[in-house]
């Protein structure tokens, strides 16, 4: 109604002056279209890591001590815990009596918050001995601590104060539960924390915990200590892909440095996960076995831990000297002196300079500039000295976090270090250039490698290498698409699926691993508020977005929006699209879909719903009459906004659009969402249409059980609403599925019921369609007169109704009835009209059917090469639209054409490829498929496989009378191979008793083998009857191969009657006709018989040529069998 405000959340109409819905309380859109109040606020969803540190035995402690003394002891515990937390840039959220609650990820979030939290927990544990020594002296007490750590999701505002909403989050509860069950002195973590830190922390697995309030047991691990180097065990499974050029460049730099005594600096920059560490690992692996082996020095800068600026240098000293963090100062000096004495004799004086790396000064009042100069000189001298004996590679990782002093030291090494074989390798993120825009740009021996994402084909190769043994092809394809060139993302997605997470069972519904989410969330969280809000608004709109839509959600001005998008482009989070779907709007897109997904996931659900409603309104307003072009996007916004009534209709339109485009998977998904929305909105009248639409897509794809479920559900809904038109349509579709699965009686009942309802309601289209289906049923049963009669009425009704698609289907059936009657030209005319009609209707499924029928008719008529062209066209079209049934039929027709041409290798391969699908679809032609397969194996001489095929073909239940001859012929072949004369005579008796006129081409095809069997069984009179009975129909049909087969049988009778000249004339005609249509089996039989009767040398030569052509088409094993068979080797 025009004078009400519609609630997008619950669907209730409200008074026009309302700001909030009277039913659900949600904000309403104002008449101008804007939401009441801001849509995107500072509130956000974050993954945080919580520490719950508990002081064990505090009750007994407070009983023993004076209150003031107890407060002082507990205060020292608080101070120790707070120092550990703040050292790693966490925040103490609360002091809870004898426990401390700390959080990592609020208010500032880092990608390695779980690692920081565990390191902080270990620092708390490790600080207890020193604290206890003081407390024992001062108060006569010792403290014990236990720490629980958990990672989980919370909703918090920017600059959050840790209020009650935070305190009841699952992460806090789980951390508390974990620590309660641990022994004093232990630091234990939950499963999510463990998964995110197992590469950097050493753990010991513990027994799962039964805890209050948790349905499943908690999996926990005890943290032991930080690992000295990041574990790379899980990252070596895949080959290096797409980085050979960069690897070669680094190898060349090393060879030049080592060979010419030069200092080179190579800086490798790239976004997280793009493969910097992997590239380094491959380089060091290649250099490991060369001589002289280079000395590798590696250090990493940290973003946390209260470390001084030269942490990377400390890493190097720890590794080469063997220093421990627990070593006292005198031990550190002693170890440094000993190492210098052994590695660089005469350079022991460098000890004092190296101690500066640890922050040691030369006494109070020392000049910082002098200390810095001395430290630089010490390290330069050290590296020059080490490079005297062998080349040195100094690796500095994560230099974007390095202190300016370290960056200055590295830069200083590019000059004044002559005759030094030193390769400096820095790994970092592009943020380094924000701090140092001219980094390494002035040195002649410095290069920067910008490591870009992998190309799509390279990503696909990587995912295949990682997941081929565990993941289905469609899942690997989905993973490659979501990873979008980031190797880490690809590896983590594959690992998540192969380790049995819930997403693995969801097929291609790939979720985001915690490791990937942490990296991306940290990048997004570091953005300024307006830029972050802009990114999240863009994420609501979709993979692609427009500035005006973003501004509508954020409330920012156009200028501020443009500025924010510019920042996002600079940070390589979004990119400019060359064309826009909306006139007058620049279009942008997320560089990676995972970035969009993470940004979207950071929004609270309540904000998402309002934002989707506003985005949908913006799109509808901007596109107006052209909204159908992106109806699927509008529908998704309405669905996610909770506007179920409007969503259901928009989803129906989007699903229908996808169906017209044969985007079948999308159509099924959209119809399913439409059904769900319609049910929520109680749109009973719409539900039958939606089930009908989805069922027809399932039917096209050959998913008959799903199609029948939809049609049954839609039929029940149509009956409830009294919609007679839909009831008739759904009755027809239910019947169609029963027909497809050879349940003829059930199919007839539903087709008849559909026709009755359609007659009563005057629905000429559904009536015509149902009559066509009843005609098809009669045709399958071999009742051609009834089929033709019903079909004629059905075609007339469909022409009147103007339903071109259904008319094309009817004309395709007319093609096959004409073919069955032996009228090949009329069959081709009907198929060509059907093809034109299908194309006019835009019905690619009917078009594929017409193409396949043209192929089979031309092949039956002796034009096999033309038949192959039509069959291939039908297959390509059917596959492009996902029509499994038609593609399988067309492959059968294609294999038959190759068989007739003597290309038996191709025919057998095709048949074995489509046979599983034919069995799944329960094709009525299965008796023919096994017959053709057996015939080819028999001709080749592989009698074992021939028997197997004939036995299967003979055993099939024949529901279509037209194909009974195929099963009967398989039984005849089997009896002949087994030399079972009684079975042969029984089969021939059944053939004699059969009534003619079921399917002219089939009768022509089987005439030769049945006639040969009559001859071999000595039943000459039955052979004469067969020739007389079938001759007229074979000549009328006009197929050269079948006329040639008839001539072979006539030659046998003439030879029996002593009419040698007549026999020769018949065989000459048989050879001529068979050669003209290239029918290999008939050529072979005609020449063999003429060679047998008249001994013509030309037949021996002709058979050898034919056998060579056949052999060339066969795979090695079958070729060997063929060439050694009696019919070939006997020549």
User: How many helix segments?
Assistant: 51
CATH architecture of the largest domain: Alpha Horseshoe
Uncertain segments? 31-36, 502-508
Here the CATH topology of the largest domain equals Serine Threonine Protein Phosphatase 5, Tetratricopeptide repeat
Q: Kindly state the number of beta strands.
A: 17
First CA to last CA: what distance?
Answer: 90 Å
The side-by-side strand order for the widest beta sheet comes to 4-5-3-6-7-9-8
Task: Name the CATH superfamily classification of the largest domain.
Answer: Tetratricopeptide repeat domain
Number of domains: 7
Helical proportion, percent range: 55-70%
Structural class computed from helices and strand pairing: alpha/beta
Q: What is the CATH class name of the largest domain?
A: Mainly Alpha
> Percent of residues in beta strands?
5-15%
From the spread of the alpha carbons, the general shape counts as elongated
Instruction: Let me know the average pLDDT.
Output: 88
- Biggest sheet details: 7 strands, mixed
Describe the overall structure.
This protein is of the alpha/beta class. The chain has 7 domains: 1-37, no CATH class; 46-226, Alpha-Beta Plaits, CATH 3.30.70; 243-450, P-loop containing nucleotide triphosphate hydrolases (Rossmann fold, 3-Layer(aba) Sandwich); 456-511, no CATH class; 763-842, Serine Threonine Protein Phosphatase 5, Tetratricopeptide repeat (Alpha Horseshoe); 846-905 and 912-920; 906-911 and 921-1129, Serine Threonine Protein Phosphatase 5, Tetratricopeptide repeat. 62% of the residues lie in helices and 8% in strands. The strands form 4 sheets. A 7-stranded mixed beta sheet has the order 4-5-3-6-7-9-8. Strands 11-12-13-10-14 form a 5-stranded parallel beta sheet, sandwiched between helices. β12 (392-397), α13 and β13 (422-428) form a beta-alpha-beta unit. α20 packs across α22 and α40 (926-940) packs parallel to α42 (964-977). The chain is elongated.
